[in-house]
Every structure is written in C-alpha cells, then in structure tokens.
Amino acid sequence: MSGTRAPSDGRIDRNRPLSFTFDGRAMTGFAGDTLASALMANGVDVIGRGIYTGRPRGIVAAGVEEPNAIVQVERADGVSEPSLRATTVELEEGLRVQSLAGRGRLESPGDAVDAGRFDARYAHCDVLVVGGGPAGLAAALAAGRSGARTILVDADTELGGTLLGTRDELDREPALDWVRAAAGELAALPETTILLRATAIAYHDHQDILVAERRPDARTEGRLWHIRAGQVVLATGAHERLIVFADNDRPGIMLASAALTYLHRYGVVPGQRAVIYTTNDSTRTAAAELTEAGIEIVDVVDSRDGRAVSGSEGGDRLEAVVVDGERRGCDLLLVSGGWNPVVHLFSQSRGSLRWDDGLATYLPERAVQATHVAGSANGVFDLDGCLREGAAVGARAAAEAGFGDGRPPVMPAADGGTAIGRVAPIWFVPAPEGETAEARMFVDLERDATVADIRRATGAGLASIEHIKRYTTIGTAGDQGKTSGVVASAVAAALLGQEPGALGVPTFRAPYVPISFAFIAGRDRGALSDPIRTTSIQPWHVAHGAVFEDVGQWKRPRFFPRAGESMDAAVLRECAAARTSVGVMDASTLGKIDLQGPDAGDFLDRVYTNGFAKLKVGSCRYGVMCRVDGMVFDDGVTSRLADDRFHMTTTTGNAAPVLDHLEEWLQTEWPELRVRATSVTEQWATVAVVGPRSRDVLAVLAPELDVSADGFPFMTWRESVVAGLPARVFRISFSGELAYEINVSTWHGLAMWEEVMAAGERFGITPYGTEAMHVLRAEKGYPIIGQETDGTVTPQDLGMEWVVSKTKPFIGSRSHRRAENRRPDRKQLVALLPLNPDALIPEGNQLVAAGTDLGSRPVPMIGHVTSSYRSAFLGRTFALALVRGGRERHGEAIVAPLADGTTIEAWITDPVVVDPDNARRDG
Amino acid sequence: MAELRRSPLEGVALGDGFREVPFLSQIDLRLNPADEGARGAVESVVGPLPLVPNTVHGGHDAAILWLGPDEWLVVGPPGSAADLERQLRDTIAAATDAGPVAIVDVSANRTTLELDHPDARAILAGGCSIDLHPRAFGPGRCAQTLVARAGVILWQLDDAPTYRLLVRPSFAAYLAEWLTDAIPD
Amino acid sequence: MAATPSPHLPDHPAHLWRNPDPKPAYDVVIVGGGGHGLATAYYLAKNHGITNVAVLERGWLAGGNMARNTAIIRSNYLWDESAAIYEHSLKLWEELPAELDYDILFSQRGVMNLAHSLGDVRAGQRRVSANRLNGLDGEWLEPDDIARICPIVNLSSDVRYPVLGATFQPRGGIAKHDHVAWAYARAADALGVDLIQGCEVTGIDVADGRAVGVQTSRGPISAGRVAIVAAGHASLVAAMAGVALPLQSHPLQALVSELLEPIHPTVVMSNAVHVYVSQAHKGELVMGAGIDSYNSYAQRGSFHVIEHQLAAALELFPIFARAHVLRTWAGIVDVAPDASPIIGPTPVDELFVNCGWGTGGFKATPASGWVMAATLATGEPQELARPYALERFTTGALIDEHGAAGVAH
Amino acid sequence: MLLITCPHCGPRDEVEFRYGGQAGVASPADPEALDDATWARYVFFRDNPKGPFAERWVHAAGCRRWFDAVRDTVTNQFLDPEPRR
Q1: Residue C4 has pLDDT above 50, yes or no
Q2: Which of A36, A221, A825, C309 would disulfide-bridge C289, Cβ 3.0–4.6 Å?
C-alpha cells in the first residue's frame, strides 16, 4: 500500500486545493502541503532513482535532510529549478514536477532571461536566534523580553519546529497553543523580528550570519539577509538517522519522526502496516499514534533488546522486512537510528565538536565566537529540557549583549516529554549472506554509496574520513551528509577496528542548504551588475552617435562615426581634424587631485621621478610615478596653482589608486609633511581643444585671455572666464598639437562642450574619441600606462631618462639601480614602420629579429607591439613596440609573425614619428 | 549662470520618495584640530567643527560633516561656495597663529540625493552594511560608506527619517537606479 | 579527448598506499604531502632511482590546496619561462593516465579566457602570439567562435561588460584532483617511497649551514636533503630553518554546484570579472573566484567575494541562475610578488624549496614534481626551474605574471 | 565578511577597507646606502605568520585613514579590541 490522505487532521487547508503534475500525472494537494506530503498523499512511492544503481527511492524525511526525493520543479511562470528537495518545497498551484535520476537540468525559460528576482538585506541585532522550535522560541522570548534587538529565524512556514509534527502538551494544553501565544508575544515586541521561511545557511567570522528567506508572495522571490549579531543562539534541532542494513533504501522505509510529521502535520497516512525499528526512546509514543491513525503495528524492533532488521523485500514499495531472521509483512518501516544534532552552523563558526557515547553522536563542545547552543542541537532531547535550556541561553545571550539580568523566564511544564534516553546505535546490521550484501547497505542514499564502498576505501589504505569521503563520495551530495555523515564515520571506524567517534566527521561547509546562484547574486544583475560611470558631457555623446568603450567602470566615446562610416574611416577623419584644424575631446575622466600645504612641492619630489618643488606658479609639468620596485605606476601633468597648492592629474584608471598611494605615503611614511590630498576628479569637467586652430577657438571663447604664444606659453595654465564660465585653462598637449584643456565645474561641462562646438564650427571642429586620442599620442611616442607598460617597465625603458632625476631620491629610485634594470637588452620603447605602409601589425603581436627561423619552435622573441594604428598624418601604418635593446636598433628591420603564418616586416625607429621637433605643439 | 548648469540627475526619472538636491555648495576642509589657531580661524567663519566622528553640526541649509579626524565637509546653499572659500582663505591668512588649512571647493564633486520615504531604512539596508537603527544612527549622524557599489556620504537629517546621500556625479545614475529598483514591497 | 560526461566515476584501485611508520633516516625528506610533494617523490624514484624518500604530511595526503582547487589545466602563459614549465607540465599531463595507470579524468576540453575590454583584447593577442611562437596551441577567438565552442556564454552587446573575444587553448582542460594526487601517491608508494601521514614537521635541523634532518610529531628524521613543498605553509616551514621567503598566504575561494546534466562543454575564465568555471565529469559546476585580499591560513574567505563572483557569472552565463551552490571552501595560496613560483636551493645547504605557485599550482603538478625531483637529485636547479630562483628578487629578474595582466588605462 | 574596527569610524564591514599588508615596515632612510639584497628584502619580503599578525588597513570607503591592527591569521579574530593607530 502507498500513502493516503487522512480524512481529517493536519495543518493543511483542505478548502484550498492545489493542482500540480508529477511526471505528467495530474495530482491535487492542499495549501500547507509540501510537495513531498502531497506526493505521498497521492500515493506516489517512487520519487527518484539512485544515481548509480537506478534503484527506486521514496521519501525518507520531512525536512532539509531528505536524501531521496529530489526533483525538478517548473513553476507556473515557466521558471524551472533543478534539484529541489520535495520535502522543502511548498506546494503551489500549477507546479510541474519531474523526477530526476541524480542530475538536475538547467533550462532557460524560452529566450527570456529568468524572471526571478532576489534581493539582500543587511541587519544588525543583539541576539540572533536560529530555529523556532521549543528551545529557540524560549530563547527568543527571553532575549526579546529583555529589550535586546532580537531576530528569530526559522526555515519553516510557521513557528513551532518539531511541535508541529507531534501531539506534545505544555501545562496540559496542546503545545501549539503555547507556540501561538509565544509567536504573538514576539511579534508584538518592538525590537524583535521574526523571519519565517528563513534558513540560516552560513555562519562566518565576526558574527556574520547569512539567512536565506524565501518569499513566495513578495516582489522578490527571496532575500539574502546578512545579519551581524552580537550574540547567536543556535537552536537548530537534530536530524534523525537511518539504520544501515541490506536493502535499506526501499520506498516505504522512512525516518520515524518524519512519518509522524506526515501524519500529524500534513494529514497523510504514510502506509498501512508498519514495523518500527528503533535504537532509542524517541519512538516511544509512535506505535500508539500510528495505531490511532489506523495503521497496524506489526512489530517494534528495539536494538536495546538485541533485535535487528537485517533486510527488506519488495519492488517499488516495501512488502516485508526481515526481523531476526523472520519475514514480517509490512509496507512501512519507521527507523530511528539515533539523532544527529544540527551542528553545521556551530562548526562553521569554528566551534569544536566532541563525540558523545550516550547519544552516539557529535555535540558542540567549545564555541569560539559569541555562540550559544540550546535544545536538541545541544543534545537535549526532552521538551522540558529544551524549553529550560532555551530560556536560560536566551537570557544569558541577552545579558552578554547588555540587556536584562540573565535570569531565564519561567517556561510551561512539559507533560512527559520526548527524551530519547540512551541510544544503542547500530552502525550497520550484518547480513546473513555476509559481505556481499554490503553493496546493498546504503549509507548515503543521495550518492548511492554503501558499506561496500567504505570497506573498499579502508581496504585501499585510507584511514582519514576526508579520504574515505572522497573515495566513496559519501557526504558530497546536496544533503551534505545530514543523515549519513555520522553513520559513514562510524562504519569506517568499525571497519578500521576503531571506536565510533575516532575518525570525526568531514568539515561542515557553507551553505547549510543549497542556494541558487541567482539568490546569491541578488540585484547585482544587468544594469546594476556594476555601475556605469559617465561624464557630464555624456548626453551630447549619446545624441551624436558615439560608439563607446569600457574603460574600467567608465563608458568613454571611442569614436564618433558619421552615417555609414567605418571605425577606421572615422578615426582617420578625427585624427586629421586634430592635426589640420581643430578637434575636441572629453577628457573629464582623468583623475584629478588637489594638493595643498607648505610641503606639497617636496612631497611631489618624492612621489614623482622628476622635480616639482621648483615649478613656478602658473606652470605645468609632466611627471611619472613609480612603485617601490621601480616600475612605472602612473603619469600625468601636475600644475602649480599657488606656492602651497598643486593640481595633479592621473590616468583615468588610476585615479583612485594614485590617491590611495599618496595617502599611504603621507600617512604612514611621511606624516611630518604638511600636505593634504583631495580628490577633485569629478569637480572638474575637462574639454580638450586640440589642433592648429585651437587657439582661434579659445580666443573666441575667452576674449579677455591673452592666448598668444608668448602670453600663454606651452606648459602653463590660466584662470579665466571662458564662454562666460569660470575655468582653468591648461596649455598642455597629449597629441603633439597646439592644445588647451579647459576645466570647468562638472555642472558646466556640457555647456562648455556645446560652447566649444559652436565656437569651433567655422573651423570644422571635430569631436574625437579615445581611439583617435590613442593614435595622436602614439604618433608622438607618448606611452599610455597599461598599454605600453605592464608593471615590468621602467621610465628608462620608455626612453624617459629625461624625466628621471639623478639628484634626488623618489619612490622606486633605488630599484632602478638593480642589476636587472641596468641591462642594455631590456625591452625599450620604439616605433615600427612596416615596410608595407598599408600593413597593420596586430596589437599585442610578438616580434622576432629579422632572419629568425620561423620553422621550428620555440621561436626567440625580442619584443611585442603595444600599439598599432593607421596614421592620417603619415599616410601609413605605424606601431609602438617594446623591443630588447630597442634604442640601439633604430634603423634595423624586425619581423612580426602573424597568426595566419604570414609576416610583416618593419623598420625600427625612434618612437616619435610625427613632429620630433615639437614645432606644432609649441606653435 | 544657473541656466548653464546641469545636475547629474537632471531629466532622470526618479522613484517615489527621493529626489536630487542639486548644486549644494560643498567645501572640503583639512586641518589639524589640535591647531587651535587654525581651528579658531575656521570656526570663526563656519561655526564649531564637529569633533565626534561621523557627526554633523547644522541641518538642511547649512551643515558641517565630520569626514575624518582632520577633514570636514562644509555644506551650504547653492551659490555660496565661492564667497565662503574666499572668506575662509582671508581669515586664515590673517590668523598669524594658524597652521596650514587645506580648502577645496568640491561643490560639483558630489551631488545630493534626498531620501524621504517611510521605508528609507529598509531601502538603504538593502545595500548598506552599517547599522541604521535609531539606537545606532540618528539625526545628526553621517558616515562615509557604501550603498550597493557606490561610495556615498550618508547623512541623516531628521527622525522621519530623511537621509541625504552625497555621491559622485558619475555614480549618481547608478545609485538612483538602484534606489528606484529598491523601493520595497 | 573529452570523456563523455557521466555521473559515474571510475572505480579506484583496490590498493592505494601503505601507511608505514617513519624510518630514522632518508636520502630525501619532502615536507608536504600535497600534489607537488607526491609528484616530486614519484619522479625522484622513477626518473632518478632515488627511492629512500619520505613524504611527510601533517594531515592527510593531498588535503591542502590539492583538495581545494578548481582543477583547471592550461599552459598558455605569457612569459617564456612560464610557458616552458607549464607546457612541460601539459605534455606530462597528456601521458599521465597511461603512465600512472589511473583514470584521472583528464579531459582536454579547451580553456577559454574572455576579453571584456580593448585592453583585455590586446593582452590576449599578445599572449596568443607568444604562445604560438613558443610552440603552444593558442588561438584567438572572435565572438562567433566563442558561440560555436560554448553556446551558453552570453555574447549580447547589452551586458555590462560585453565579450569582445577570447583566447583559447584547445589542449587545456581539467582533471579530477583527488585522482591525480592518489595516482602519484600510489605510484610513489609502489616504488618504495614512504608516505607518512599525520606527521607534522616541527623543526628543521641545521648544522654548519646545512640541513641534516627534521623534527616531527613522530620523532626526529635525518635527511640527506630536505625539500619544502608545503604550498600555503611554505614560509612557515622555511622559517624553521631561518630562511625567509617573499610569500604571502591568502584564501582562494571556490564553490561547487549540484550535479547537472551536461551544459558547459569547456572551461571559461574571465579575469576581468574574476570568474572561472567548468563542469566536472559527474556534472557539477566548479567555480573559482578571486583571491581574498588579506593574509590568512583559515581555509575560508569572505562571502562578498562569492557574491561578486556569482553576479559576474550570471552576466556571462544567465542559464546558471537556478543552479545551486552546494559547498564553498577556500585553499591557502602562497603568492610571490611576481605571482610566479620559487624553485630551488636556499641559503641553507641541502634545503630546497618549491613554493609560491599561487593560483597555478594544480596545473603545474607534474612539471613541478619533475623539475623539483631533478633539482633534488643533482643539487642544481633543473633547467626549467632556473629562472625561478629565490635570487631573482635581489637581481630584479622577475617573471611578472601579475604585470602581464596590466589593467590601468 | 570581516568586521574591522576603524579607530575613527568604529566597526565597519571589510568591503569598506583595503588591505595594506604587514605593519611597521619602515622605508629605509637611505635606500642608496643599501646593497641589492637588503633593498630586495624591504621591497619584497614580508612576514607571513600563522597566528597574530600586525597588519595595516585603510578605511578606503570611509575616512581614508590608515591604521594598524593585530589579527590572528587562523581565526581572523582581531586581538586588539581598539586597533592601534
């Protein structure tokens, strides 16, 4: 016989039927059912198959420890989720459930992105109570009444824990009446929060507990709580264990407590003729309760009487068990092999465990964090004891958090209670036919692993539980060995001739229950997966069809194509405009740092390779920074605003790292320097006006400003009004052209850009993006940090001895004198001119000496291309490259072997290929 | 010039319960609080500096926020920064016993979002790890912290609670989208 | 060739190793019974005939990083020195199943490294070009090629960081880490090497500047040569002999999903968003994240690393949304300033180190053991190991695998 | 997620901080006077203890101040309740 729905009883809502399908068969359950209880009530025996053996498997448990009933669930909205435990899925209308043979399926709901939405919540409390059973409720009441900020989390849909599945009484009233009253009181406490359907999945360092809350009717499907708790009470309960004997995996064999839970909570009669097989007192009332439900009790087999079940018979459903060599017909075997306190979170918190012989299991021993354990999680199994310990621990936790006097509140008295007494464990029942039956003695049902597997592992020489776990895969499935871990350890110990607690258990890993990737990713998806940073001029770029590139978190215009124009054509056009007339680009993303203080000049002398202390007010200077190891870290132009004030610029990507670097040296090495560094990156928008007509544009915009070559020379800056806006204008150039960088308040960035465009219209002013910017600077041999450099390049390698002081120390100066950094064959920056002026060497391509044999491997490489472009100005291609001893090779040929087997030959030249005399820039 | 200014969230549709307060004046002050000359000079202009970390003197219209043991942010109404900076520089220059004070106009370096929503705490707790419970964080408190992936100066104005979030312009659209998306159920 | 993914694992051999008590003296004592230590012992015995060797393991064999990595194998490193040693390793991998007669589930399903920015593209092209000239199988993939090889990668231009291309090494892949370690252990044991577990080294005996033995929790053991092959704990062991190593130990986190039907046919890495993922033989997704910033021996990291990793992973692989995290864990990686290993002699005679493998340790296992064995056999650095000498930090001749992924713009 | 106590701002989540490695490594007063080995020791060699470790953090997303703390690298517990400056 299979399970049936009882005519009454249970905490389901029989007025709310819900339809669902299982492997295509239409079924009905009720609100309040789990998928497992509904399946059982519909007479389903086989929910899945053993992953290796293919043997039929039924429902074993009623909670997260279920090893068998694992299914694929498709919701009405089309979302399909693999590998869910039917025992933890709340039944809802329209579920389409499929059995699985060990592996789940990932499916996209059509072409649509998964509609599921999850979020996160940070929370802080004085006392966190995990588990809303009797011990947890008592603890929460004690803590909550003290005024402590208390959070109670419970994985179930309602509070009560095991009481939901028993008929226990308190003060001679149904225990659930007390639960209801306690829940009501807690809900009314202003500083107490109750989270239901909320599973604590991880206990990290510093009292950081992750709680996954399922929210079936909310806008977010789930919420991941990050709870920082002053004190933590773990009232996480215990899982009943199976007993290992031959063919112990047959549908109809289930945990005793689970069977009673199905009966009392869900109104499901799990079978008709039952044998109870127990090792302890927790099944004491089971027979009476089953009898009351009309189930015939065939036998009660108690290990403490020296009796044992050694085998089972049947097909897809249990038909009989073998008790002390005799066949007993039954369709239900209720098993209680003892109890495993749920110590997962305690262990994750680094608490230590100890073996307890009386309970034949591991118990919490010593906490490392502010962790308290109460109730059956602590080995206390009687209801009275759970309430008393819960109340005591809750009060103590609150007191340690500074609330209340630590005295526990009075709890109601349990009538009788459900102590388990001493456990007489049976790790596995020997079979009459000997060891051959061990291949049918299942230890880990989810991994289909048996006593035979463990015997093989120990026989191979393995003596560590971690090795045995890996050899057998026991404990590695989704249930993480909740029912099997202690048994496996004890079986292995027995086979090795050791005591049951000798081997310990494998490390408990977070999460306590499996949690979906989407649940953890939360809202950090799509547009919110990472900030998109844009400048104040972005609306113009978008309106004018810019193509963007990602530069860190920034989106920067790469080029501005006209209709039908290719990137190459657009970039050539943009470059030509800058070299022949005037171009404009948005340089707002450059890092900017305001440095103030009497020692600012000295400070810059120490952080830049060149000198700044003597820079005149009103002047600008290019500088290079190195790391302590002497490698180039960043570069930029720094201008003196006043005797005690500088305006530093950094590369876009290094804006934050450079500020951090400056603060680090200021705060930790040179606190005596009176310098303050403040980021002004986003205070200023920067519009670079570039080209021979840039002066004309500026003259139009700033009529009061003397823009003549003598009045506003190269590498100086002016404070001025430009287009009616207060501005700082820097005459600096990253293109080799006459150029100005106009800085205005970010509020004015777009207005300034528009004014520049209007003023430049008569000169054909052309906006350009990062690509043209890269070409223009490359033509001048200006390196880009991160493109010409890769953390292994010194300023000398870049041909920048001129920027490296010989007379003063700076960060990294000592490293430049190390042997390796003085080698003449270091890779040095050069330009390459392909013999074929149309041939473009791919960026990144490696280089070999002319005449190198390319027919064998490895081919000796002497450098690589860092940048490669078509130059509008030169009417040809060119590249920058780092080449071994490159400075001595000017005029030599070099070869780039391409991926397709062809080669490009090029001449090595000085890195400056346009206007080496700087006549254009200085014009 | 007001017509030429654009705030970072101009034209951006924002969710209920929050709005941009654009163009506030902001001056970053750096000085050693033990330097009585410098502190006296500064305080003669802006009023007492909050010396307790993460606290604020003042309110909606004018306030000083503690940013670090030697750093404060002076917030004022739009258009007041230039005068204030000049006044500070003049006063410090005249104070012969004042050590160095760094003064930087950072008005455009951050914009301000004001969150006035009954669930403001919960919304922020969706991405901000600091404890916003009234016992821990109330009116007159500020903190430099993270909300989701954006750095902010978080500042509680009143018991409502109303919060201000000062954020870099380039992160403002992200933060606004995050807040709009966060309005809880 | 790629084995067809199947939930079935091959049976392990019925005998793996003896569990001998330590002898009073060995020619070579290897401190550390991880993959590298076991491989070193095996090649000492097999290539050099040196079998009077003990491998001392504090816990259980291969229970450190070998048990905690994501089992990715590739050799497509940028620098010549790196490519040489990792390619030697890959060649050894290709022979390993037959040589060790153990199904280590070595699957050459290819390793793809995604580029999300123009800088990534440039760096990827540079690496592929170097790989090809060094004789490695490196390819550059355009998005269409990526779709062909791994259809589940999201190649939409609407994602936050669109995929612009990828490097690909077809010979790269994965293997089953425990099987690899046990295969080496079994083979070394069979050749006479003593694998001694539960034996913690508490001191290194140095006399006249020469290492002569070790103190252990199971008594003193004298040794002709001592090799420290202890991964995350290398600097602690070396310190026992007064040798300082430029290493910092950090957590490196990883996670695994439940068993899933085959969906992910290759290995995909994305340094830019700190994700790497493959689907192991039984069907679980195995995923690694970035290194936690702080020093730690805790074998656990901080959860925000996992949160970032999964958010990034779902941008790349939306279909993973409903896969479940089953377990998370961390190894302890020892990282040198240039992110390259340190192999060879130390200032103490007869004391050798092999450490600093950072995130590259698993794939290097065969070559690491090979070159270390040769170094121990001759007392001189093996040719491939020579660039990895401790002295490079003094001369400045670093092999900067950090810098090779320069990210500033 | 570690909870790190900034000496100014109090306890904050780890993501607000950046790690600075070993504390108390002073830069040499006169680097030029050092031989290559000594210089290399300063640049590249740091303690890597298992147990208490004096280290530096900067409250990068907060007050931007650097501070020292002692943390056990096995338990991650900070040993000074109030980190030293």
Answers
A1: no
A2: C309
Q: Is the pLDDT of residue D82 over 60?
A: no
Q: Is residue A415 within 8 Å of A169, Cβ to Cβ?
A: yes
Structural domain range at position C214: 24-67+178-247+338-405
Predicted pLDDT of residue C404 = 52
**Whose CA is closest to A659, among C359, D27, C379, B109?**
B109
Chain D residues whose CB is inside 8 A of the C304 CB are 1, 14-15
Same domain, C220 and C235: yes
**Structure tokens belonging to residue A248:** 């112990």
Same domain, C167 and C252: yes
- pLDDT value of position D85: 43
Residues C155-200: tens digit of each pLDDT: 998 888 999 999 999 999 999 999 999 999 999 999 999 999 999 9
**Using an 8 Å Cβ cutoff, are A331 and A271 in contact?**
yes
Q: State how far the Cα of A349 lies from the Cα of A234, in Å rounded to an integer.
A: 11
The residue type found at A560 is F
Q: Exposed, middle or buried: residue C347 (CB in 10 Å: 0-12, 13-18, 19+)?
A: exposed
C79-88 mean pLDDT: 96
- Residue for token digits 């940073």? A533
What confidence category does residue C406 fall into, taking pLDDT thresholds of 50, 70 and 90? very low
Cα separation, A33 vs D22, whole angstroms: 56
> DSSP per residue over C248-299, as a string?
EEEEEEEEEEEEB-S---SEEEETTTTEEEEE-TTSEEEEEEEEPSS---SS
CATH architecture type of domain B18-182: 2-Layer Sandwich (3.30)
Rg (CA), chain B: 17
D12 touches chain B (CB under 8 A): yes
Nearest CA in chain D to A656: D60
Disruptive mutation site among A191, A682, A744 for chain B (greatest number of B CBs within 10 Å) = A682
pLDDT score for A107:
86
CATH number of domain containing C165: 3.30.9.10
Pairing between strand C248-259 and C267-270? unpaired
Q: Which residues pair with A22 in a beta bridge?
A: A25, A97
Asked whether residue B67 carries a pLDDT value surpassing 90, the answer given is yes
| CB-CB under 8 Å, B143 with D62 | yes
Eight-state DSSP code of residue A669: I
* pLDDT number for residue C405: 45
Nearest CA in chain B to D13: B129
Residues of chain A whose pLDDT is less than 50?
Answer: none
Tell me what ipTM this predicted complex has: 0.96
User: What's the pLDDT score for residue A1?
Assistant: 64
Phi-psi bin for C344: left (phi > 0), alpha (psi -120 to 50), beta? left
